Structure formats: structure tokens, C-alpha cells
Amino acid sequence: MEQIQLRVVFGTYHISAVDEPALDCGNMNQAIAECQKILRKKPNHLSAQALMSFAMARAGRIDEAERISRSVLNTAGSLKSPYVVEGLSLAFRTLGLLDEEIAVYTGALEFQPNDIKLNTKLFMVASRNSMYKEQHQAAVGLSKITKQDKHMWWVIASLMLQAKYSKLDPASQRLQMTLAERMSEKALVDGKLKTVEELRIYLDVLEMQDKHSAMADVLFTDGALSEKITNDPDLVTQRIGLLVKSHEYDKAIEAAIGTLDVRENWLGYKHYIAATVAKLGLAIKDLNAKPDSSELVPEALPIVEVTCATLNRWAQIRGRARGAKLALVELAAALGAAGHSDIARMTLSGLGDQIWEYVDQFQAKAICYKDIMPYFVVAIVEPASKRINQEVLDFHRNQLDRRIDIACESAAQSEDLAQSWVNLEKIRYLLQALSDDVNPESWVLGVDRLLQYGLDSSQAQMKQASCSDIVLIAGQRLIQASFIGFSETSQHPQLHAGLFSALCVLEAGIKQNDGSFLLKLYAIRIYLFLSCYERARAIYDSLNIKNIQFDTLGFLINGHGTSLGCYVQDLELCYEGVGFYDSSGGRISRGLESSYNNETYSNITDFIEFRDNLKNSLQRKCTHRCALRGEAFEPGSQAEIVAKWVEANADAIGHTDEAQEEALHDNRDVNVMSLLTPVDMPKWNLEILTRPAPLPGTAWIAVYSIIPQIMHHIATANVEDVEALSKKLLIVAEDAGDSLSRQDHLLVRGVRQVAALYARAVDGSQSFDEQLSDLVGTVTEALTAETPDADSPETLSEMASTTIRNATVATEIYIYACSVRYILNKQKSPSTKAVTLAISQLRKSSLAKISALRSLMNNHMRASIDKNWVTSTAMFAVPAKFMQNKRRAIVDSVAKSCFSGWSRSVKNLVQLWEQWS
Amino acid sequence: MSTIRRFRAMDMFNFNNVNLDLFTETYDISFYLSYLAQWPDLFTIAESADGSSMGYMMGKVEGRGKDWHGHVTALTVAPECRRLGLGRGLMDSLEEASEKTYDCYFVDLFVRPSNKVAIAMYENFGYVLYREVLEYYMTDGVMPTENAHDMRKALARDVDKKSLVTNRRIVTPAETHF
Lengths: 917, 178
Description:
A: 917 residues, Serine Threonine Protein Phosphatase 5, Tetratricopeptide repeat, 0% strand, B: 178 residues, alpha+beta, eight-stranded mixed β-sheet, 4 helices
């Protein structure tokens, strides 16, 4: 923990290639002592020096390690020794000094130019660090020395990567690709292309040049490779896709039928349908050219009819009906998209009928909705205008109405029938969203019967899966109704009451089925929305979160604690995230090395892309900035905190420039968080609806990159940079607009005032009364001005949305101000006394306000929740009554969770104000 | 409807609906990457029509001589995607690669005796109980919680199905290393 923190503070966190397991084991201090013992006897022992520099680098003695390792590197002849090479390369790698690491290998190669191990290491260090030109040179060297096919493929892979990722001019890129293609082609002719992995590299080379026809030729090659291709389902499918791309529709259809006869595969179906529709298009084009085209459609029909017959034949095979039937829906949709709706109607009776035929047949499967949902969208939303086709929408509504009540009544009979109802309820939700239904009451309609079944039926007692789904839908409807009905600021008391109702439903669902991660995800979002961090974190901890899921969920929690006054506990989670991102680069690089060694070339570009997405992700940046932010509030003396600001590497925490910002990846798996509507309908998406604060994005990252830099420059008395960065902060915040939360804007204002105060006060000759007054005013304003009416729903709503968040920002600004006061004192500024006095008074008045808030919280808030949320508004009366009658304990527990979450936050804030004096 | 294809590292950004299920083990990134780097054709994913993950299977090949075999390291299917035959599809892909690409004698897997549903499924796929592995499953890698059933299915190369015959019905985890 401490090491990681230091790495962050000192800006050396980018050393991602460090071998994490070796960091944890091994006693570096002992290693250093052993080396020193040797060096006392033999001061010029270069291997010991190299090893010691490595151990020092691992032990965090960066400066000494760098000095010693450079000295060894510059010693003539030192690189003759393999031990020196080993130790130095590790030291430079640990220190993140890439050029020096490469210099070790290139220097060593001067003594042993044909050393395979050294050349391989040079190749790997280049590959780990995306130095494709150097990687290529090393591969060529190896290939010349060993004459092995393996190293020839390393050359080809390097050429491809160089063309793909290096910033080469187009002519050079083409040259690299041509060379790679020729080498691969020659390998094929010479029988040196033996494995599927080598073939995949060749295919990648061709694909990068859009040579689809050539790719298809390679995949239809005869000989030993042919059998390997046939045994690889991915290549077989790719082969069909290439035929489609090469306009070889008959061949594609033949190949698809042959493949699908043996084993079904959705991509295979897609290729088959694409080829059919394209062939139809060609046929119609030919017919149009004829003088009499009156027989146009009938002549073209057989093309589609044959496909329909084939699909229907497959649909009769046991276990294959679902795929083949969905393919018929896909065919109808594809025909419509290509402008052949009339043919779709003649051959398939239209998309609408196909959709409902599919629903009727497979609604007992949980996957049915996921399968069919995109086709509802395709059918109802006109592709060009994005407008709703009301006639089609009404058709589907009618179809649904005919089925849904019967399904509801039958649900109790069996789990399959219950699942049918679940799917129809999901379709009801989708159609409602597609129709842009903004009447909140219609969203709540039917929630009572959902709750009855989901929580209070005999099926619920048996914990059947359908019950969790039904509870989830009920929760979603309540969330949707809340946001639709009460999105105006003045209506927030009702919004929060509605969300409380939804939360009670979700918690009841969780209680019934603790394994439902969807219920938990939704509950986390709402708790965070209502500023209740503790329960959100507890649910998060109960999820199976590890590794990559930080990207989706970890960052949701990371930072919210900081925003809600829970600095320390949240910081731990942030550092878990920071550690994950730091270590990932090295792990993926090892995977990359392993791919070369195992000759599994198909993964190389995938690994590079994966590493790039993690390294340059919004989530990584946000997690890191959250950690930096929280670190300023860690318990410790002011001297320690200010020392951190002094030592912080301003370059490392520098704001990402705009071009890089745009390239940042958003790695969230939004599918797992979406509502029942597709992700291209953000208005109806739970991820958007229940986002507790604006999504930490590039503006957010910029703000939280500039603030620590300002503090660094204050601590190092660099007034010019403080002022420049303060201006930059203002510009970023103004440009960001609503993409930053109100609290973010408040913080920006406070930090700029802190910066202005310092810039004026440090001078000593200028008045800083105005700056001091502004700063005090901002902190005072952020804390509740007067004791509000404790029982009012507005106060309760303010508590959920604003009060704690504002108080947290006030605390943060105050702590920065304290640091400035300390720094002024250390810099012996004559202004110190006045600033100290003002801050002392600010602390006194603010503590009184926060204590009053705490008192308000402890005396009234729990009762206010009972009064204003539990009984709820008229719109949520039915679900609220149900929950009151059937799940009173859950309602109490949710109310308690909200209260205790706020209480804990306020308590933390009081402690911070008391601590920072 | 699904496509079974090779797993890619980038799929790890998109498999929460599978891995957040309580019964699915989430491993360290290195673990997934090591499988991808060594046996890319034995790590497969079932992808739905809309491109989301439905389930995946990690496998490997190991052993010497007559013990040369395919091994199922992990097989998991998202809750909403069960009862669709995906488990069979994923197992088929491993068995086929083990047989046709790697020329193995058999495929084996370990399963908790308490996981009756999974055992029934594997039996349905043709797997038989080969032996019991003592205290194989552990909590946090320390406390033994449960034995494992080592189940096997002979492939075409093992004509006489000798790989299914053993003299020792109970072994320790160390004895299962190839």
C-alpha cells in the first residue's frame, strides 16, 4: 500500500513493466547489504554494482540506483559480462529507463553479436515497449543468425506491427506491408507456413491491405494446411465472410450451407443471409435491365424461397430451432433493410410476424428478449429518420396485449410460463420506451402485480429465477417513473422518494436472491445517487469483483467515497484500482512475450490493443486522480502533507492534452448496466439515469489533474505557474459546463481562490483581503447557511443530493487553504498571521455549522425518511403500501442504510475539520 | 443465438454478465492471458447475436505419452443463457480441437461432487468418473473444503478406452499433475 502510494505521489507509477511478484518477495535490503559486503573487498566488482543498483531500484532508492547503474553502463568493457548485463537491464527496467535498458543489450551485442539470448532480449524489450522498428531490426538479426522459421515469422509480425502502429508515412507503410506479404507468400510456397497461427498472421497482413480475395484464396488452399483450416471453426466462418466480401455469393451460400449443416453458428447464418440478400439484389438489377421487367419479383423470389426452405429445414432439427428461426427473423430484417420488404412479405409474411412467431416459440427461454429486442427496434424505428413508425408500433402493441395478461395469469403454473411473462414484460417496457412514453403513471402501471409475483408468491418463496427478473423489472419501472415524473429540480423531493421506493424493491429482491448481481448493480447506483456510500460499498464488496471489472464497476465506487466525505476507506479502494492498472501493463507484456515464444501470433495485436485500452482509459485516469485527490486528506501532519505536494511530480500528474483525451478508451461494460432498452437509447438507459454525478470524463480528469499541480506549485513557491494553472482550470471548467457536477464547479472556484490568495499573500506587499474574503465566502456558502426545516421533504432531498456533497467540497477547500497557510508560514511570508486568523475563524464557524448538521442528522433525519420517503407520494403509493405491508423490515433497513450512510459521512467531515486546525 | 469463437483479450472488457455470477470464478488477468498465449484455440467464447458474452471455456493440453490429453480449466455460462446447449457447444469445441488438432487420448475435468447439475451435464456429454481427488478445492487457497471428481471422456485415439481405467480411485491433488 505504502509503496504504491509513494509511486503515485512521486509520479513514478508509470513503471508498469516492473515484475510485481518479485517485488513482493525477496529481501532487497539484504541483497544490497550482500553487494556492499562484496564491494568493500572489491570496489570495482561490476556485477555486484549492477545487482546492487537493481536491488536499490526495487527498494525505492531511485537516485542511488540510477547513479550506480549509469556508472556501470559507462564503464568500458562492463557489458562483456552476462551478469552485468542481466543486473543492469533489470535495474534500468525497474527504473523505467527504457533507452538505457536497450543500450545495455546493444552494448552487449557489440561483444557478442551472434548471441541468440541477447538478441531475443532486445526483441522482447522492444516488443514490450511498442518499439516496432527496433523490434523488427532485432527480429531480422535473429533470423539471420538462427535461420529458424520462427524468427522469420517474428520479422513478418514486426513488419505488420510497424505498419499498423508506427507513425509511418503511407508509402513506407505500404512498403512494410508488401514486404510482409511477400515473405508470407514465399513461406507458403516453400512449405514454411505450417501452423494456423502463422496463417493468421498472413491473413492479418492481407486484411490490412483489404485483399479479401487473396485471403479467401489462401483459406481455400490445398495441402496439409487445408485440414487445419477445416478443423478451425473461426477460419471456416471467416472463409465464408470473405466470399461475401469478394462478391462470390453463390460460393458463399454453398459454403455456408455446408458449414451450417454440420454445426450452427450465428455468424455463419449472418453470412448466409447477407449472401442471399446480395444475390437477390444482383438478380433484381439484372431483371431491371430487361425490356420487360413485369416478372421482376416472381423471378427473383426463388433465391429467397430456397433460403427460407433451408432455414426451415434446419428449424426442424432437434436443438436447432432457435438459431434457424432467428435467422428467418434476420432474413426478414435484412430484406427490409435492402428495400425488399415486399419480397419479405411474400416469402416470410413480413418482419412483424416473424418476430412474434419467434417470441411465441421461445419466450420460455430467458435469452428470448435479448435475441429479439434488436429486431423490434429495427422494425419500429425508421433507419434514416430515426422516427417511430406508429403503425408498426401499434401492431406490436396489439400483439403484446393479446398475450401479456394470459402470460401473467399462467405464470404460477410453471417456471417456463413465468419466464414467458418475464420476456413479455421486457417487451412491454421496450415498446413503451420506443414510443417515448413520458407519462410516469403509465410506467408504474402494473408494478403491483409484478411485486405480488416477484416477492409474495409461492414461486418467490421457492426463489425461482423468474421472480428476481420480475422484481428487477418492477424496480426499473419505479426508477423510470421517478426520473420521468420528477426530473425538474423543484420536484426532486418526489424523485428521491420514488427512488427510495425502487431501492426498497431492489433490496427485497436482493434479500430473496443474494446472487442477483443485476439487482445489486442497480441498488449501488441508487444508493450513490442518494449519497449513501456505505451501503453501496457493502453491496459492491459482496460482488465478485476482480481485475478487469474495475473498469466497469470499480471506478463507479472509486471516488464517490471521496465525494461523499468517506476519504480514507475509499482511498484503499482507489489504490486497489491504481495497483491493478499499474500491474496490468507488465502482465500483458509478459503475455505478449509468451505469445512470441509459443508462436501464437494471433494474439499479438489483440494483446497490444488490450494493453492500450487499459493504459489509455478513462477509468485508469479517473482512478488515479481519485487516489491523488484522496491522498491530500490522509491523516498526517501538515508538514507531511505539504512535503507530498513538494515532492509530487508535476509532469507525471500533468493534464492529458486534448488529442490524448480524445483517444482515451471508455472500457465500461455498459451492457451489464443497461435498462431493458438498447444502449443506443440513452434517454432510457439506467446507466445514464442513475449516474450519481456526471460521468468522470476528460473534463473531470483535466480538473483533477490541474488541482494537484496547483498545490505542487504553491508548495514550491512557483507563483507564475500557480496563476497560469489557475487560469487554465477556469477555462477547463467553463468549457466543461454541465459535464462537471455542481460540486466540481464549486471546488474549482474554491481552488482558484486558494491559488489567488497564495499569489497575493506570498508577495507581502499587496492586499489579499479580497482573496481571503472570497475564499471564506465560498466555504461558508458551501455549508448549510441556516438550520433548515428538519421535517420538510425538501431538506431530506437536499441531504440526499446536495448537503453532504457540498460540505465535502467545503472541507476539501478548507484543507487546501490550511496547506497554503502552512506554506506561507514556512516561506516566512508576513501575511501568515492574517491568513491564520481568517482560517481559524473559518474553522470555528464551519465546525459549528457541520456540528449543527450532525445534530440535525441525528435528531431528525431518520424520522424525516420515515415521514417523507417511506409513506411516499401518491404515484408510488401502491408499491410503497405493498412494501410496508409485506416487507416492513426491508423498508426499515433501507431507511437505516440511508441514514447511517449520511451520518457516517458527516462524522468523517467533523473529524477532518477537528483534525485540521 | 450464439457464435462460438476464439476468446480474445479484449473480450475481458465485456464479460461481466458472465463473471459476476456467484458461481463463476474470476481469475487474475495473467491467468487468462497465459491461456490465450499458450492455447489460443482452446479458449473459446459464446457470443450472442448482439455481440455480448454468453459464456466461455478455458482449456489446455498437457501430459506425456498415453496421458496426453485436453483439460477443461473453466466452463461457465451466464445465468440467462443456460439451458440453451451452450455448455455442450463449448465442450464440443474443446473436444474437437483436442482430438483433431492435438491428437489427444482423452479430455478430463474436475468438478465439485456437490455440483450435481454440472455432473449430470458432463455425464450426459459422455464423461465418466475416473477418480476422486482428495481436498482439491480450497477456500482462499488454504482451507480444504471439498474433494473433486476427476471426470474423463476417451477420444478416438484411445480406441480401447484405456484412459478411463485406473487402479486408484482416490488420489491427492499432487498426484494429478501431469
